[in-house]
Amino acid sequence: MTLGAVVFGQAYTLGWGLVASCLAAVVAAGAAGVLNGVIIAKGRITDFIVTLGMLSAASGAALILADGKPVTIVDTFLLKLATGGIGIFGWPVIIAAVIAVAAHGLLFWTRFGTHVLATGGSAEAATATGISTARVKIAVYTIAGLLAGVGAILLVARVGAAEPASNTSFLLNSVAAVVLGGVSLLGGRATILGPVIGALLLTALTNGLTLLGVSQFYQPLAVGVVVVLAALLTRFQK
After folding, report:
1. Could you give the CA distance from residue 3 to residue 145 in angstroms, rounded to a whole number?
2. Which pLDDT tens digit goes with each residue over 154-196?
3. Strand partners of residue 120
4. 42: Cα separation from own chain's centroid
């Protein structure tokens, strides 16, 4: 997401225009996803190690491209994207809802979704039934990268600048939302609605702590405790 945001800022500064800059951000993040998928699927390396390495590499590439300096972006459309919406729902929330509905349909109503669940449950069994697990993994990581690019655009719109410094709170909160949503980190059991509810709960938690005047230093502590408790509850439920 940070790499996509920086590519967005550099392209916009070079006069590429808003649409081209958005496409550049999505393509850059998507390329990182493709590389993740290829290394994991073809190199047969543990996904955690590969994605952790990509986090460092992409963050470093973002710092190099931006020379460590944020790029301020002033655009009317981005301002409306960050502050506008329909009724009480802002555009970022609406976009997230549309993506969630599309993801639910893709995961549970298509053959590809069935292959994803089978690969997550047992790659060996999926391969035995004729599923190309390598292609499935590459496709999933590519989609993850493309969605990170969409997140980069929304981040630039919200902040008003392309920041080369990565925000690690996004990483923890994304994992926390998935765990709170009841998704198995071991694979094979998935839901789209769960992580959406998990994200809403985390947002309510952090915003509630802010409204109560609790120091922001305690917020990561609260999120970490909630994640561990959610993981324990999920295990007992299973």
Report:
1. 11
2. 999 998 888 888 767 788 888 888 888 888 777 777 889 989 9
3. none
4. 23
CB neighbours of residue 100 within 10 Å: 15
> Six-digit token pair at 224?
């970490």
Q: Average per-residue pLDDT in the chain?
A: 89
List Cα–Cα distances, 107 to 140, 149, 182, 220, in angstroms.
11, 20, 16, 31
Are 150 and 74 within 8 A, CB to CB?
no
For residues 66 and 9, is the Cβ–Cβ distance under 8 A? yes
- Which amino acid is residue 36, in one-letter code? N
The interaxial angle of helices 168-180 and 193-211, nearest 10 deg, is: 120
Helix (H) / strand (E) element for 79: namely: helix 76-83
Q: How far apart are CA 192 and CA 175, in angstroms?
A: 14
